[in-house]
Amino acid sequence: MLNDSSQSKKSHRRKSSVKVDPFESSDLYYGPITDPSNVNTSFGRLRTRSVITPKPKYHSFGNSLTSFSNDSEDNDSNSGSGRLSRANFHIHNDDDHDNHLESIINSKITGKEYSNNNHYLNLKNLRDLNKSSSSTNIPVISDSDNEINNHTDLESDVSDDNDDKDDLYAVSMKSHSTGSLVAESDIALSNENFAEPTEYGNTSIMKPKFKTSLKSKKLDSVKSTIFPNSTESSSTSSFKSNVPLPSTNTRGNSLIPNRDTFSPSPSPSTPTIRRRGSADMSSSTINSKRFFISDIDATLNELLTNEDTDQNCQITIDDKGPKVLKLGTANSAGFNQYDIRGTYMLSNLLQELTIAKRFGRKQMILDEARLNENPVSRLYRLITTSFWKNLTRQVTETSILEMAKDTKISSEGAKYPRIYIPYDEAEQFYYYSKISEKYDSFNLKVEYLPKIITDDYVKSINDYPGLLALAVRHKSDKYGDLEGYQYVVPGGRFNEQYGWDSYFETLGLLSCNILEPCIGMCENFIFEINHYGKILNANRSYYLCRSQPPFLTDMTLRIFDYMKEKSNNLDIDFLKRAFLAAIKEYNEVWTSYPRLDPITGLSTYHPSGKGIPPETEASHFISVLTPYCEKYELSFDELQEKYNNGLIEEPELDEYFLHDRAVRESGHDTSYRLEGICANLATIDLNCLLFKYEKDISFVIKTYFNNELEYNGSIETSEKWEKLAEIRRGLIDKYMWNEKNSLYYDYNIKIKGQSNYESVTAFYALWAGVCTPERAKILIENSLHKFEEFGGLVSGTKKSRGDLGVSKPSRQWDYPFAWAPHQILTWDGLKKYNRKDIAQRLSYRWLYLMTLSFVDFNGIVVEKYDATSERQPHKVEAEYGNQGSGFKGVATEGFGWVNASYLLGLKNLDILSKRALGMVTSPTDFFAKMNPTEKTKYGLAV
Ligand SMILES: OC[C@H]1O[C@H](O[C@H]2O[C@H](CO)[C@@H](O)[C@H](O)[C@H]2O)[C@H](O)[C@@H](O)[C@@H]1O
Predict the structure, then answer these.
(1) Residue 616 Cβ contacting ligand 1 at under 6 Å
(2) Residue among 407, 487, 498, 861 whose CB has most ligand 1 atoms within 8 A, to mutate
(3) In this structure, which of 130, 136, 693, 751 has its CB flanked by the most CB atoms within 10 Å?
(4) CA–CA separation, 78 vs 812, rounded Å?
């Protein structure tokens, strides 16, 4: 905690060392430099104009209304073509102007609609709106005051706001290069900014507020923007914004709930030190204008016609439109028109209009702050308030009719929604049958699964795919009065609960205080283990034979610890049921035939199953099957059908598909690391995950069950599981560590040797805690660079992947592609071994990819990224393409684990990097311009 005098010294130092030119400050610039439309017209100029506008020329009240237009100067200042001197500007007060304006308008055209303006509103309408603002249902998207209240005390750092941050600040101020990143006033980031999302479960449409008295605030902020060294504005100190939290709590500890390090985040009422308003806020909220859009359809139409030149219903840097649209402000009765300029603002406009239209609105008031919102805040806000909600599923009487449909399979039998029920779940069968009867026009098929589910049975229902029943709870005591638990789906084509996705989604959800679906996903896993024998790849019938990477123990502990911290609730029953299920899974799935290799004692991905996986994209197996089509002179479809029905026998194909199923069980579908070989590999990732199971089970038995947990009639002890973990650690060291290359490799149990594919999953060894500190150091120092690319960690090295060609198409889990789970596990692993600095650097790289794509491509958040692409990393041409990109107008889901990675990655960033991210500063530029002290905080060599 800083004492008063040191605080004032620091703030003095900051003040005196900062100079902000509202026309040059990069703080006022949110557009990425990659956006060609922003190159000459920074947001800074555009947004500054909203604060300081050229004095309107009121030539004569009796003259044409067009004399109020500032268009020529506006365009000038917007385009940046001529540097307008400050002397030409006056501080413009919208309210005065409005009064003035209104009286003139009244005398001129009372009640008449202007037609000489694209978006002039009907003045009478506007007055009516103003009068009835409390009851009107005209939506205001992004009312800045409301938005502010939804978030937290933004303009403040936590009072003992770690010296670390202050030092960093001071250092960065001295840095010539990064100084620009830390201009006049920092976006004060406080832990409370990550308070529980208020809009989860609701829409973000807020009640309109007209004539908000922002006048004095505006003036203050204008003053502080123009004269940064002048006395601090009193009013700015109370402003808030929705800027994300720092990665650390007040003591610099990670806020990721973890049983080793978890400490509760400060309550929203923690006393804070208020800091002066930031340029970000003054321009994005305080002086924010409100636009009135009198005809949403027409505006959308105009916007898309002009700007969506490639006609994909998104406005991106690929579009070649004019990149500008005029909107009239609500306060000026449409007289003041402002350019909405550049891809980012226009695409935000498209998104806001689309949302309003989907809510059935015809007109709207739109706050400028929604259009030029700091992209980091915007993405954070969308994930926490909208994406999670849209990805959440829960079985109810009506939702099941939609949930049970599947778009991945196109057979006749897939036309109707279908649900399969475990043979011993009579009450669920009754429940779904009743729904089916009640909504008979939906044709919901309800079917029992057999007691013994064989590979042949699963293959036989491939053309009749269905959702698999999951855990339910009673709504009342009445038989059959049930409902499902909430769970989160990955998104895009993946509309069911997946195995390992659920773990990462849980981390993301907990990080923003959303608990319920996390519990639901855990309950579903317990149900799956007890009814289907394993945690399923996902709950569709064609996934019945295989699992996915196991994370249940850590997932349960994260949830358990979270509940313990938040509500002091020790849900021992939940913990016990989950850990008993995990022990069953460990014994019966991962350390049993055929997954256990009895020779080494290591485990492999090795599911059962028959035939060609029906859920893959149609073209996936072309390169593999073409030689057989030629051999049998059959079309692709004919060959598949005959092979699946056992009419063609090809042992080599059987072997190929055995490994293909294993690849899918590994979650890394697909990759040349695993193709044609996977079931023979004891992979480093699986064995690290099992080591973690062993450690977690040992910990839980000792800590919560007095070292005795009864399982299947015998007593499980902590020592037993500790010993299993130590054995596995020895096996991993023996078979997988390669001293010469300082890397862990998969071990091939058939050829009895290490694979030579360099996979980033080697870093799971850090996450699981397999490495000694010495080995961790060697691994990090000698091998991390092999995977670190511009935008984070690639799945494998280019050398390992080899050359691609017609017969060797690119695979999505190979170089140059990068996936959220790898980033998250490596960040956490690095932190475990005290390399928070590198975790920060890697997080920055990844978050940059996400933010850049989000800004330049209409708010996109996709399943995976190309970590080597500096301009359009979301464009991934491999296998089924990139999920999350096919939306119209506005992205509504993002992608589950990628959403999570954003929230978790932000927690690894300090203020400096959050600011740089908000300005979409490329990692290369950001790191290059750091001074030596800053570099150490990112693990960069000085
Ligand atoms: O449909 C093709 C494959 O799709 C899934 O795999 C991919 O998406 C999953 C959900 O996000 C993810 O868990 C997996 O790691 C991805 O590769 C599915 O899991 C596969 O079994 C399926 O064949």
Answers:
(1) yes
(2) 498
(3) 693
(4) 42
For residue 285, what pLDDT band results from cuts at 50, 70 and 90? low
Q: Is 163 a catalytic residue?
A: no
Distance CA 170, CA 879 (A): 48
Distance from the alpha carbon of residue 494 to the mean position of ligand 1, in angstroms:
8
Helix axis angle for 296-307 and 343-358, nearest 10°, is 140
Tell me how far apart the alpha carbons of residues 924 and 830 are, in angstroms, rounded to a whole number.
Answer: 21
Q: How far is CA 456 from CA 394, 595, 652, 875, in A?
A: 30, 20, 19, 38
Which amino acid residue places its CA nearest to atom 21 of ligand 1? 664
My answer on whether omega of the bond before 651 falls inside 30° of 0, hence cis, is no
- CA–CA–CA angle 561, 565, 568 (5° rounding): 105
Question: Would you call 88 exposed, middle or buried from its count of C-beta atoms within 10 A (0-12, 13-18, 19+)?
Answer: exposed
Q: Which of 280, 523, 828, 863 is catalytic?
A: 863
Residue 505 Cβ inside 6 Å of ligand 1? The answer reads no
State percent of the chain over pLDDT 70: 70
Q: Which of the residues 669, 716, 828, 856 is marked catalytic?
A: 669
Sign of CA pseudo-dihedral 57, 61, 64, 69: positive
667 lines ligand 1 (CB under 6 A): yes
Q: What is the distance between the terminal CA atoms of the chain, rounded to a whole angstrom?
A: 30
Question: Is the CB of residue 501 below 6 angstroms from any atom belonging to ligand 1?
Answer: yes
If one residue of 468, 540, 664 were mutated to test the ligand 1 pocket, choosing by the most ligand atoms within 8 A of its CB, it would be 664
pLDDT score recorded for residue 288: 79
Instruction: Give per-residue pLDDT as tens, 870-902.
Output: 999 999 988 988 999 989 999 999 999 999 999
DSSP H or E segment with residue 629: helix 622-632
Position 52 confidence tier, pLDDT thresholds 50, 70, 90: very low
To the nearest whole percent, how much of the chain has pLDDT over 90? 66
> Is the ipTM reported for this complex over the cut 0.90?
yes
